[in-house]
Amino acid sequence: MSEGHAHRGVALVTGSSSGIGAATAVALARRGYRVVVHGRDEQATAAVAMAVDGVPVCADLARDGEAERLAERALEVGRGRVEVLVNNAGFGWRGDFGTMPAGTAERLLAVNLAAPIALTRALLPGMRERDAGRLVFVSSIAGRVGVGGETVYAASKAGLDCFADSLRGELRGTRVAVGVVVAGVIETPFFERRGTPYARRWPRPIPVETAAEAVMRCVERGAAEVYVPRWLRVPVAVQGVAPGAYRWLEGRFGE
After folding, report:
1. d(CA 126, CA 168)
2. Cα separation of 71 and 180, whole Å?
3. Are 216 and 169 in contact, with CB atoms under 8 Å apart?
4. 3-state secondary structure 169-213
5. Superfamily of the domain at 9-253
6. Taking the complete model, does pTM exceed 0.85, yes or no?
7. How far apart are CA 251 and CA 253, in angstroms?
8. Tens-digit pLDDT profile for the chain (255 aa)?
């Protein structure tokens, strides 16, 4: 939807040059939002923005000040208003913690946790002033149950979950909703980029469009929490009530 036409508002989707973010940008555009498409790859970011008639903005969220610059650009596009923030950008690293390259942990925490906090800090005041808005955080099952070999990634997602839950408590009684999408194995380049492709036969990866629709449930209905796939609630519940049984299941079926 081009600038100047009636639309439902501006939505900023981080990490939307591919994967879940790109599918979410498409879903938001179809519902009438003007999407600020964020990525690091200029060509890929521009391609998605063109496909959704959105605005491309490249930024490396691991660098100081880039999250704030991205928020400022989104506010420029929305003429001071951003109705939806989808914190989707993130990356992982798999391997023994002791072999993690220098700087990787810091970059993981910066992109997966610090950047969403900074973007929320920049855009939430306007939402509170208007008493309307949606803050969506794309998290991971790793942040709920912990995953060996992905210690820092899991910690970053656990922090994101806790931040979202705590923020929801602060916003109780307002019309600014906070949603968390707890994602399992999704068909994205995530696994190749983390350095270890996904090789298990089960569970099968979920299409990115399914994950994007989970994001849209948070945007449209104000859902507080959506699991993708839904059965991921089971291991979380098992870990809570029967940690021994969970450890056995993790050894048998864990990725």
Report:
1. 16
2. 20
3. no
4. HHCCCCCEEEEEEEECCECCCHHHHHCCCCCCCCCCCECHHHHHH
5. NAD(P)-binding Rossmann-like Domain (3.40.50.720)
6. yes
7. 6
8. 444 445 789 999 999 999 999 999 999 999 999 999 999 999 999 999 999 999 999 999 999 999 999 999 999 999 999 999 999 999 999 899 999 999 999 999 999 999 999 999 999 999 999 999 999 999 999 889 888 889 999 999 999 999 999 999 999 999 999 999 999 877 666 655 656 665 566 567 678 999 999 999 999 999 999 999 776 777 666 666 656 654 545 554 454
Point out the residues that are catalytic.
153
Alpha carbon 157 to its chain centroid, in Å, reads 10
Give the CA angle between residues 57, 137, 135 to the nearest 5°: 80
**Sheet harboring 176-183: ordered strands across?**
55-58, 33-39, 9-13, 84-87, 133-140, 176-183, 225-228
Terminal-residue alpha carbon distance, the chain:
40
Domain spans of the chain, in order of start: 9-253
Which of 138, 140, 119 lies closest to 36 in space, CA to CA? 119
Do the Cβ atoms of 123 and 85 come closer than 8 Å? yes
Q: In the chain, how long is the greatest CA-to-CA distance? A: 58
Tell me the C-alpha distance between 62 and 173, whole Å. Answer: 33
DSSP conformational letter for 100: P
Distance of alpha carbon 92 from alpha carbon 77, whole angstroms? 30
187 token code pair: 């068909």
